[in-house]
Every structure is written in structure tokens, then in C-alpha cells.
UniProtKB/TrEMBL annotation:
Xref: InterPro entries: HotDog_dom_sf, YiiD_C
Lineage: Bacteria, Pseudomonadati, Pseudomonadota, Gammaproteobacteria, Oceanospirillales
Residues of the Thioesterase putative domain: 12-148
Protein name (Swiss-Prot/TrEMBL): Thioesterase domain-containing protein
UniProt organism field: Marinobacterium halophilum
Amino acid sequence: MKLTDTTDFLSWLQPRIPLLEHLGVERLDWDGQTLEIPTPLAPNVNDKGTGFGGSQAAIATVAGWCLTTLCLKERGLECDVVIADSHLQYLKPVTGDFVTRVSLDDVADADALVARIGERGKGKLKLVAEVLCGGQTCMRLEGMYVAIRR
């Protein structure tokens, strides 16, 4: 399995989700199991000088969507991916530039998703995305992503 070039993927994604440019997303780091999205605080600041909760929610949601899409693309599937359910926990204020990280618990989870899509034309993947600042988890999103074969 060849890893997707994240520069090309981001170039493809930005016109489709213009919010990413406004959030200041300039790169994605992907190793086949974990996706990290470094994000500057400046365009995501609130009136208190800390990270705006809506920006954190948006970037965490997109991170799970990207991981799901990348996993499927690398396994030869083109699917429509949506978030079906999410739960957010804001644990600490974001006080500087931050990184959003989402990982597969096990690469077999992606293989199981592909198998379900093969059998039923759709499948679900549960993911946890965390917004990290200064080495601490500031926000956590638990999300259920649904992929539907095109």
C-alpha cells in the first residue's frame, strides 16, 4: 500500500473545504495510521486570547474525515465520508499553536471498514481526535464516521 502524498491531498481538499485555509491549515502529517494537523492559534483565537472552541471542533472533525478518506483511498476505494455522530470535551484552554491528532486504534480497523463497504456498500469507523497544545490534551472529539461507496 502506497501512502498518499499529503501535499497533493491537501491541495485537492482545500477548495472543497475552504474553511481549512481560514483555520490556517498548511500541511498534514500522515504515516498510514496517525494523522496530525498543525494549526496556528492566531486565526483561531477567541475574545479571551485562547483557542476558539468552534475552530477546535471544526479541525478535529476534519481530521477524522481526512484519516477516514486517506485510509480508503490507499485501499483503492472512493467513498463519500461524513461524520454521523460526535461528542466533544473541552478540557483545557488552547494557549498557543496546536496540533490535532487522530489515529486508528489498529490498522485492522481500516481493513474491517473496507470489508464492510465491500459487503454492504457502506461502513462505520469510530475515531478519537485530540487537540494538543503544549503537550497537553485540550479538547477531545469522539466521532463516528460513515463511508458510502460511490
